[in-house]
């Protein structure tokens, strides 16, 4: 371990769109993220995998998600027969916790883990795929992809424990501070790694009314107005190019002006709750950062904040959800809306499992198209990144536009600390990392991107980026969210060969407004060939479509 090695904190939120937080131009107040960004760096061209478990597997290992067998979910085997989808991270692809622990760090994790198979997640184990089996000294949080914020499926270390009734964000922050306090008293010179991963802002959207009521009336002008305001704020802040224009509103989303007054009231309340949920999460992060400052540890702590593990979620359906039993699968549109209006006061409370309507997902993803799960689109995969380190960030408050991906965070951390990937971890020879360190860009805004090739694949949606160009194919593009399918209805089979490929030059068209596929067939052919190479190298084949799984199972238990 290098002398005076910094502490390391990774913070990753859940289901937050690029344009939600005020820190990146949104209308939802995130003052603690603002402070970290204003004293650190904002990365505006950073990417996730497009859905939770793949993003987290890539982040923790520094490798592409199919390459570490996380093509879908750990808690649902997409396929037992193919390595890209079995949901079991191999031991030769060690996690950041294993690597840093080998180098003298204490390692802690709180919040969402999401990488433990369901059949292993009982108090009988086995525990090798629990956080402690993957390098963490202590863990407090939940193993699955989502949980109730007041009645979480809570785990501490290798056992389930009873929640105390407080909001999960408060509990995990208290526990993180407790872990850090105990270590600091026992060994003040020993560095720590903390992985802080709240379940927020994944559904269910739950938060005390003191937070949601902060936004009373602030979204009455609707999602179209939200998008217009956000894109102008983003341009003013320099987050996006000055030439930027909004993509067209998705055809599934009604114009706000066309809605009835009672619909506007209902939909605005969904967003008030969501906004309060995000602001409260920011406050809890601020409490953690405040503890580090008060204890004299912050100046030597390298902090990464990833605002969302994918784009904003489309899983609330076109109309929003309050009660899982009242869905578009089980009721007519009229009855569904009527019940939601009757239950409007439950939104955000422990009695509801709320998720906002699709219109707010598009608004939260401003200025991009589409949303979570859509690995073809920047709206599904582009998330804000903040890098903060008082000792080492000279260009405080600056913006960085270099291309990045979650696989880059681990190699960035290792290079900055001065640690090399161990050749062996617990006797197992380690595979190489696939990410590209971003350290080269810390003090050079004009440094050309070093991460120049990246593929994406989630549930059939796929794309490949190379040196500013991007080819992409949506799969089942009209099936915007599973929750809108009626009881007994299946999703029509769609051959992957039928998918339509699009081509974008992100250097001049960063938010994918102008499809160049017909004008530049050679470039499209070149990128499709690159995707094939990456797909074969990284265990993406055979393509497995989540909608095929959906046709066999009720999706509510699995789509997280």
Report on the structure:
Belongs to the sulfatase family. GO terms for molecular function: hydrolase activity; metal ion binding. With 560 residues, the chain is an alpha/beta fold. The protein has a single domain, classed as Alkaline Phosphatase, subunit A (3-Layer(aba) Sandwich). Helices cover 27% and strands 13% of the residues. Strand 15 and strand 16 form a beta hairpin. The chain is globular, with a radius of gyration of 22 Å. The C terminus is likely disordered.
Key terms for this structure?
560 residues, alpha/beta, Alkaline Phosphatase, subunit A, 18 strands, 27% helix, globular, disordered C terminus, Arylsulfatase, Sulfatase_CS, hydrolase, hydrolase activity, Sulfatase
Short description:
InterPro entries: Alkaline_phosphatase_core_sf, Sulfatase, Sulfatase_CS, Sulfatase_N. By secondary structure, the chain is an alpha/beta fold.
Strand % is: 5-15%
Task: For the largest sheet, list the strands in their spatial order.
Answer: 7-6-5-4-8-1-9-10-2-11
Structural class by SSE content: alpha/beta
How many helix segments? 13
Q: Roughly how many Å apart are the termini?
A: 38 Å
CATH architecture label = 3-Layer(aba) Sandwich
Rg: 22 Å
- What is the level 1 CATH name? Alpha Beta
CATH topological fold name:
Alkaline Phosphatase, subunit A
- The CATH homologous superfamily corresponds to Alkaline Phosphatase, subunit A
Q: Indicate the low-confidence ranges by residue numbers.
A: 480-491, 550-560
The biggest beta sheet reads: 10 strands, mixed
Total DSSP E strands:
18
Number of domains: 1
Helix content: 25-40%
Domain Sulfatase N-terminal: 6-419
Keywords: Calcium, Hydrolase, Metal-binding
Protein name: Arylsulfatase
Organism: Pedobacter hartonius
């Amino acid at each position: 371990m290098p002398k005076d090695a910094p502490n390391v904190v990774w913070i990753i939120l859940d289901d937050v769109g690029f344009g939600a937080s005020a820190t990146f131009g949104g209308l939802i107040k995130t003052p603690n993220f603002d402070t970290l960004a204003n004293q650190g760096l904002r990365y505006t061209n950073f990417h996730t995998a497009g859905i939770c478990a793949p993003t987290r597997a890539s982040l923790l290992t520094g490798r592409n998600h199919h390459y570490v067998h996380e093509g879908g979910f750990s808690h649902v085997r997409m396929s037992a027969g193919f390595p890209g989808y079995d949901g079991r991270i191999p031991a030769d692809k060690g996690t950041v916790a294993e690597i840093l622990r080998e180098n003298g760090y204490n390692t802690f994790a709180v919040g969402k883990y999401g990488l433990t198979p369901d059949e292993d997640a009982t108090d009988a184990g086995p525990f090798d795929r629990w956080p402690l089996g993957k390098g963490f000294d202590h863990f407090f949080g939940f193993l699955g992809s989502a949980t109730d914020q007041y009645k979480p499926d809570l785990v501490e270390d290798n056992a389930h424990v009873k929640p105390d009734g407080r909001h999960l964000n408060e509990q995990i922050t208290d526990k993180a501070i407790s872990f850090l306090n105990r270590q600091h008293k026992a060994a003040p010179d020993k560095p720590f790694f903390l992985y802080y991963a709240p379940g927020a802002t994944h559904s269910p959207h739950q938060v005390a009314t003191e937070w949601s009521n902060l936004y009373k009336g602030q979204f009455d002008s609707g999602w179209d107005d939200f998008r217009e305001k956000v894109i102008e704020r983003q341009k003013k802040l320099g987050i996006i190019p000055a030439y930027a224009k909004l993509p067209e509103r998705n055809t599934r989303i009604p114009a706000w002006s066309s809605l009835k007054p009672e619909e506007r009231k209902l939909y605005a309340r969904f967003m008030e709750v969501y906004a309060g949920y995000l602001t409260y999460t920011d406050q809890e992060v601020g409490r953690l950062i405040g503890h580090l400052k008060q204890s004299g540890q912050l100046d030597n702590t390298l902090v990464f904040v990833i605002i969302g593990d994918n784009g904003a979620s489309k899983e609330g359906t076109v109309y929003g959800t309050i009660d899982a039993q009242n869905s578009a699968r089980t009721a007519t549109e009229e009855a569904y809306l009527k019940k939601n209006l009757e239950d409007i006061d439950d939104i955000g409370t422990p009695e509801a499992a709320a998720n906002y309507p699709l219109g707010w997902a598009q608004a939260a993803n401003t200025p991009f198209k589409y949303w979570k799960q859509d690995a073809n689109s920047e709206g599904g995969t582009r998330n804000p990144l903040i890098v903060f380190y008082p000792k080492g960030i000279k260009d405080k408050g600056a913006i960085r536009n270099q291309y990045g991906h979650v696989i880059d965070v681990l190699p960035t951390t290792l290079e900055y600390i001065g640690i090399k990937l161990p050749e062996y971890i617990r006797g197992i020879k380690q595979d190489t990392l696939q990410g590209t360190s971003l350290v080269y860009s810390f003090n050079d805004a004009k440094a050309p991107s070093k991460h120049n090739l990246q593929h994406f694949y989630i549930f059939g949606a796929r794309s490949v980026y190379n040196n500013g160009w991007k080819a992409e194919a949506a799969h089942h593009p009209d099936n915007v969210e599973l929750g809108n399918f009626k009881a007994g209805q299946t999703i029509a089979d769609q051959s992957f060969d039928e998918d339509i490929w699009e081509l974008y030059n992100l250097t001049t068209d960063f938010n994918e407004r102008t499809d160049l596929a017909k004008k530049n067939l050679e470039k499209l052919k070149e990128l499709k060939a690159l995707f094939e190479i990456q797909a074969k190298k990284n265990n993406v084949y055979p393509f497995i479509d989540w909608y095929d799984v959906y046709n066999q199972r009720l999706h509510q238990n699995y789509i997280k």
